[in-house]
Here is the input.
Amino acid sequence: MIILGIDPGYAIVGYGALAAKNGVFRSLCYGAVTTDASDNFSKRISIIYDSMKEILEKINVDALAIEKLYFQNNQKTAICVAEARGVILLSAQKARVPVFEYTPLQVKTAVTGYGKAKKPQVMQMTKRLLNLKEMPKFDDTADALAIAICHAQTSGARFCATMIGGRSKTNVL
Here is the structure.
């Protein structure tokens, strides 16, 4: 199974693709889509959409795993991230890729076994599970990889049920 994990944002969108088979994970690629704060918001959203479309065209993914929105304070930021998340979901829909959402608690639990794990613990386990030499440059990218791991750890029968009657693909990278 090829999974693309996404940590949504509008300044930085972290992404990470991995192959998962029999509980073993292999990182395929990862990175970040960045937008310039000096650009108007419409342009930033367009960059995110175009970049996601390109990523989904290059990587023949079986599932897209994305973090659910969670905000405590800043409503303006929440709205902007929600809009960016919307174009990410649109790109997945257009590419006919099933989308699965996970809360930060679910991601932490799947990756570390502890729902209240701190960011450094999640990052260290992500690095270890994917056998990475070093952590990605952006935290958002590491988070995206953790989200992909979460889907691989928890998908099981739910993924199969989603794929019944769905598309069939050969994944070649």
